Amino acid sequence: MKLAIYVLGRDVAVLEQAGDFKSVLTYHAGVAEDDFVSLTMPVRTESYVWDDQLPPVLQMNLPEGYLLQVLQEQFGPHIGASPIALLSVIGRNMVGRLQVAAPGAVLAEPAKPIEVATLLKGDNSEAAFAELVRQHATSGVSGVVPKFLDTEQEDGTPLAAHKKASLITHRHIVKGSSKQLPFVALNEYLCMQVAGRVLDAAKTEVSDDGQALVVHRFDVDKSGQPYWGMEDFCSLLGLRPAAKYDTTWERIARAVRDHVPGGHRLETYRQLAKTLLLTYALRNADCHAKNLALLYTSRADVHLSPAYDMLTTTVYAGYHNNPPGIEFMGKKTWTPGKNLQRFIAAVFGIPPKEQTQMVEAISDAVADVGSQVRAAMTEHAGFSDVGKRMLMEWSEGVQGLREERVYAIGDWKAGEAFEGFSAPPKLKTMTERFGQSQLLGKRS
Predict the structure, then answer these.
(1) Cβ of 320: how many Cβ atoms within 10 Å?
(2) CB 425 within 8 A of CB 383
(3) What is the pLDDT of residues 400-444, one digit of tens each?
(4) Is residue 399 packed enough to be buried (19+ CB in 10 Å), middle (13-18) or exposed (0-12)?
(5) Which of 108, 133, 307, 432 is the most exposed place for a label (fewest CB within 10 A)?
(6) What does 16-64 look like in DSSP terms, one character per residue?
(7) Per-residue pLDDT tens for 293-305?
(8) Coil, strand, or helix at residue 231?
(9) Model confidence pLDDT, tens digit, residues 52-101
(10) How many CB atoms within 10 Å of residue 420?
C-alpha cells in the first residue's frame, strides 16, 4: 500500500510498506525545507526507512484503546487492520498540519463551523455527543464513531466498560465519561481551569451534566484548517505510543534542546517546569510523553504546545496508587524532596527563587478553582465523592510542594472550599487474576 503525505495541503512525500515490518518515506523532488513531515525527518533526497510499520509522527495519530478496536473490526475485513491501512482511513483528519490519503485523492473541503451548543446544554450530553459525531465526523471514521458512542453495543457490552471515549473534529476534541471513570470530563475541565491560571492551556468547555468535555483545538486556524505542525514527545523520541510512560524528563529536556531554537528554549523549559509542578499539585499520574508536544510552523518557530489532558487521576479506583507518569533522576515518586528543585534548576535552568514563585502561583490557582469544585459537588450529586477526593488530593499535592523538605514555603491558606465536608468512602483496590479462563464458571 502507498499513501501520499500532505503538509498544509501540499503533496510532499510518499509512504509505502516494505514487507510486513518496515515502512519507507520518500520526499518528492523540490519540496521546500519547511515542508518537513517531522522535526526528526528533515527534507532530503535519501528515503527514511523505519523498522516499524509507520514512522513515529504518523503512529501518534492512530487512535488508541476502544476506538482503535472498533476501526480494526470495521475496516479490517475490507482493507486489512495494519497501521498503514488504518492510517488510510483516518489520515485526512489528524492533529497537526499533516494529512494522509491515497495518491491523487482529493483532500477534505474547508471545514464548516461546528456547533457544540447542543452538547454543552441540557442533561443528555451522550445523545448530543452521538448526534454531533453523525453530523461532523470526517473521513472514514464517520460510520464507526456512532457505534462507538452507543450506550450499548451490538454485542451487549456497555460503553461504560471502556475507559475513554473521544472524537476529533475539525475544531474540537470531544470527550465523554464512563462508569469506570465517573465525571472524568468534569475532572479534566476543573484541572484545566487550574492550569490555565499559570500557563498557556487549551480552552475547554464542559456540558451542563458534567459528562462531556469539549477541547478547542489549538493546531488549526479560525476556519478549522490545519496550521501548526504538532508532534508529541513519543514521536520526537522515536517511541511507540504504547511506550508513552517509558521515558524521562531528562530525555524530554534533551529533545527540546535538539528541536527548539535558542530564543524559544528558556520559555519552553519554563512551561515544562510549570507542567511538572502541576502534576504534583493536581496528582496527575497520567502526564506522559503523548500529553506533551511541540508546535511549529518552521524550524525557526518551534515551541511547547498549550497544556492539555490534565487530570487528577488518583481519585479513581485502580489509579489511586499510581506514581507520576514520567520519572526524573531515576525515580517516580510523589515525595521527591529537594531533588525536584535541584532537577528543575539543573536541567531546565529555572533558579529556585523563580520556582518558588511558580509554586505560589499554582497554590493560588488551586485555591481559586477549589470553589468551582465545591459548586460542582452541589450541582451534580454523583460528583460529590469524586469532588471530595479531588480537593483532598489537591490539598495534599500543594502542601507537599510547600513543605520544608521541598520548597519550604510554609503553610497554605487553602480557603473554605477545602473545609467542611465529610471524608469520601475509601477507594477499592483493584485486583486482577492471571491465568484464569473466562470460560470457567463461577464457584457457587
Answers:
(1) 18
(2) no
(3) 999 999 999 988 999 999 999 999 999 877 544 434 444 444 444
(4) middle
(5) 432
(6) EE-SSS-EEEEEPTT--TT--SBTTB---SSPEEESSSS-HHHHTTS--
(7) 999 999 999 999 9
(8) strand
(9) 889 999 988 877 655 666 666 665 555 556 778 778 777 787 889 999 98
(10) 7
Per the CB < 8 A criterion, the answer to whether 218 and 202 are in contact is yes
| Contact (CB, 8 A) for 227 and 111 | no
- Burial of 104 (C-beta count, 10 Å sphere; 0-12/13-18/19+): exposed
Task: Calculate the CA 433 to chain-centre distance.
Answer: 29
Q: Is 231 left (phi over 0), alpha (psi -120 to 50) or beta?
A: beta
3-state secondary structure of 274: helix
In the predicted model, what is the mean pLDDT of the chain? 83
| Residues 217, 43: Cα–Cα separation, whole Å | 27
Decide if 303 contacts 200 (C-beta within 8 A): no
How many CB atoms sit inside 10 A of residue 434's CB? 4
pLDDT in tens, 325-384: 999 999 999 999 999 999 999 999 999 999 999 999 999 999 999 999 999 999 998 999
Whether residue 9 has pLDDT greater than 60: yes
Rounded Cα gap, residues 3 and 14, in angstroms: 6
Q: What cell was used for 196?
A: 490555565
Residue 163's identity, in one-letter code, is: K
Q: Which amino acid is at 7?
A: V
Q: What is the distance between the alpha carbons of residues 416 and 403, in angstroms, rounded to a whole number? A: 21
Instruction: Indicate the residue type of 165.
Output: A
Give the separation between CA 248 and CA 149, rounded to whole angstroms.
Answer: 35
**Grid cell locating 375:** 459548586
The residue type at 395 = S
Q: At 385, is the secondary structure helix, strand, or coil?
A: helix
Give the CA distances from residue 98 to residues 11, 87, 218, 300, 358, in Å, rounded to whole numbers and listed in that order: 10, 12, 15, 18, 35
- Angstrom distances, CA of residue 107 to CA of 83, 142, 414: 20, 16, 52
Rounded Cα distance between 271 and 199, Å, is 7
Q: In this structure, which amino acid lies at residue 251?
A: R
Torsion, CA 312, CA 314, CA 315, CA 317, rounded to 10: 140
Cell numbers 462507538 correspond to 148
Three cell numbers at 148?
462507538
* Rounded Cα–Cα distance for residues 103 and 28 (Å): 13
